[in-house]
Amino acid sequence: MRQHLKPGFEEARTGSCLPRLDFEGRAPLEFPGMVRALQLPHKYWSSACLEARAVEARVGKRRIVMLTDPATVVRVLQNREGLYPRSRLHDRVLGSSFGDTLLQGEEMEWPAWRQAFLSPIQGTQERTTVERVARACSHVLSSWTEGPVDLFRGARHLTMQALWRAFFCTEEEAAESDPLLEATAEDMDRLAYAPLRDQIACLRALSARAVAVRAEDFGEPYRMLNTALLFLHAGHDNATATLTWALWLLAKHPDIQDRVREEWAAGPGPADPARDLRSCPLTSAVIHEALRLYPPIPQILRDVTVDLDVAGEVVPGGFTAVLGIYPMHRNRDLWERPDDFVPDRFMGADLAAHRKLWLPFGAGPRGCVGTSFAFLVLSRAIGHVVGAYDLSPNPGQDLTCWVDFALRPHGRAPIRVRPRAR
Questions:
Q1: Could you give the 3-state DSSP secondary structure of residue 175?
Q2: pLDDT (tens digit per residue) in 234-261
Q3: Separation of alpha carbons 283 and 364, rounded Å
Q4: Could you count the other beta carbons within 10 Å of the beta carbon of residue 44?
Q5: Residue ranges per domain, the chain?
Q6: What is residue 202's DSSP assignment?
Q7: Model's pTM, two decimal places?
């Protein structure tokens, strides 16, 4: 059932001009190859996936079904009966870039392997983590001057600094920026739209420093190193995309930007560990809405071996399920004004209902392990930025959607900043 507008929704400006994916496929849906369809989903799936809860396609004799029913997607991801395993195709796609990683283990092995990967990493208390993220924000923002800002580059440096300082540094090391980290961030920015394999190559030196590979760790040190590559890439790249979208959306919606600024001014600042998401609900809602509109991972693969009930309709088993996160987030029957930026839908009484329709981090035992840290970095970064600068669009430099398996913003210098009086 479509959610009805609440009075607060009227405060948001129309987002009809915001970039979106146009699904260009035509029935019957016959794809030239599965990998190609995963790489460019909007080129092959039809607009039916924005309305129907299950849309079927074929690659040769292989059946593929796009699922966008929230309850079904959650059930498949939770995989409580063991009937919806990870797709081997998914593992092959990941393996071609990252090599063999711990993520490819069986369901029961994953918790132990995750702990084995995390054990060499120095743990930090929440207060220490907030302080280190604040240092990362201050470091990056110190280079912003009045005028256009290369937002994607700045967001990448900020998220990489935050991740590295929070988890891979001693207290002394966290006080300064690491030259190797700076160089890696520049390389990653230069290769932002290059194939994933090229991006991973420039992370190898940093990964080797991040993880002291131990021979006793399952006897598979190469797996630990490859998993470090995966964690370093996913741990900053998805947050980079989300922070870029969120700040650009705030620049285009000055009324909401002002409300976020007032929210942070009403209590402890973003560098204060006493501040949490419960005390900045609008900032949290902005992050939720940016992730709804532009989920970095637009789809997840699972194999379905049994008949599947999808919103009362039975889909015969024996197919690869494409769990369509992006089309679910834009579904015309689930969301009011699905293509508009309306953070208020994730506030107050509306929050619980809309969270059930929102899955940018996945769900179940394979859900993203970095969700809490991502929200910490994103919220603090937004607080730092709006407190220090007024944001406005840079005419003629809007962002557009770029898809190559993942969904990323495309464009340089989409906003202008003006320092605020202290």
A1: coil
A2: 889 999 999 999 999 999 999 999 999 9
A3: 26
A4: 23
A5: 7-417
A6: T
A7: 0.89
